[in-house]
Amino acid sequence: MDVKPEPGILSENSEVLFSFGVIADIQYADLEDGYNFQGNRRRYYRHSLLHLRGAIEHWNTEDRPPRCVLQLGDIIDGYNAQYKVSEKSLELVMNTFQMLKVPVHHTWGNHEFYNFSRNYLTNSKLNTKFLEDRIVHDPKTVPSEDYYAYHFVPFPQFRFILLDAYDLSVLGVDQSSPKYQQCLKILREHNPNSELNSPQGLSEPQFVQFNGGFSQDQLNWLNEVLTFSDTNQEKVVIVSHLPIYPEASDSVCLAWNYRDALAVIWSHKCVVCFFAGHTHDGGYCEDPFGVHHINLEGVIETAPDSQAFGTVYVYPDKMVLKGRGRVPDRIMNYKREIQL
Q1: What is the mean pLDDT of residues 110-119?
Q2: pLDDT tens-digit profile of 198-239?
Q3: Which one of 121, 134, 136, 277 has the largest count of C-beta atoms within 10 Å of its C-beta?
Q4: Is 137 exposed, middle or buried (0-12, 13-18, 19+ CB in 10 A)?
Q5: CATH number of residue 233's parent domain
Q6: Structural domain of 237
Q7: Where is the Calcineurin-like phosphoesterase domain (predicted)?
């Protein structure tokens, strides 16, 4: 089992337990290159699919394939809805993912909801909840059907939790529903701008329409799963489209109630790292409680001669992100209390 990642990533010899792949913000569309909303960052809509193929080829040919791949949301761009090709573009990207020889776990971001309703997504191939692990003797760890979240175990003593950062959102929800009205009220209480995607003048700039939040029900569920992991001395990786730690992210891109999510996570010892997308820029910070927050660089803003994905190698005492292209390498040591 003494499998090492590529030379230069670690100076000492230590055993790799398993690995997993990470990729974010593919945002494919059959369009010429364009720019972000501020007009200062180039977006490579067509080429994002070639980057995805390159990542899959890499994962498929690793000496020891990853246990799974985490797709951190925004798989196709919102422009697809404008041109009425959402289903066609999604099918093209999902057919590309079928080349991957290991399971992929899909997170939902704002661009999923620009293209599809929540009901559509629940019944689509982007719903990978069938890959979940059920703790039969602990029913409180079973997620509600009201949000898209689940947990799974890719390797003994390691639990991965996929969160629904648009559980509270005005995107993808029927505008006549109580949930929409509730979320619109939350948004308007914090954002008086006529353009709800604008953070201009806001003391809490994350309260914009392209973000969302976690319901109290989902946070209660997260707390139950983390309690189980604490009790069973598991290490936990959390995945969300939206980041939750300000020092690792642009403040405009945070989840609405990121502080509530942090409060739950910080009340437990088991969480090693929190992976998110959304910002496209990437970011990293270890918080005061020893949780590593990684915002992955987005494929959509990655030039054709570069790349944007990574493989995380898991050791008994650390996780090591080996990045490709503009994704940097990271070493994420575990908190001392939970070393094996």
Answers
A1: 98
A2: 999 999 999 999 999 999 999 999 999 999 999 999 999 999
A3: 277
A4: exposed
A5: 3.60.21.10
A6: 18-169+211-307
A7: 20-281
- Report the alpha-carbon distance of residue 26 to residue 302 in Å, rounded: 10
Average pLDDT of the residues of the chain:
94
Overall average pLDDT of the 171-182 stretch: 96
Cα separation, 178 vs 4, in Å, equals: 52
Contact 76/27 with Cβ under 8 angstroms? Answer: yes
3-class DSSP state for residue 114? Answer: helix
Which residues lie closer than 8 Å to 175 by C-beta, 6 or more apart? none
Q: Are 106 and 160 in contact (CB under 8 A)?
A: no
Residue 124: CB partners within 8 Å, gap ≥ 6? 90, 116
Contact between residue 109 and residue 25 where contact means Cβ atoms under 8 Å apart:
yes
Contact between residue 324 and residue 318 where contact means Cβ atoms under 8 Å apart: no
| pTM greater than 0.85 | yes
Is residue 255 one of the residues assigned to a domain? yes
Query: Which is it for the CA torsion 328, 272, 265, 168, positive or negative?
Result: positive
Is residue 313 one of the residues assigned to a domain? no
Cα 147 vs. chain centroid, distance in angstroms? 15
Q: What is the pLDDT of residue 8?
A: 43
Distance CA 4, CA 16 (A): 6
End-to-end CA distance of the chain: 17
pLDDT for residue 40 is more than 60: yes
pLDDT at 7 over 80: no
- Tokens standing for residue 188: 């308007």
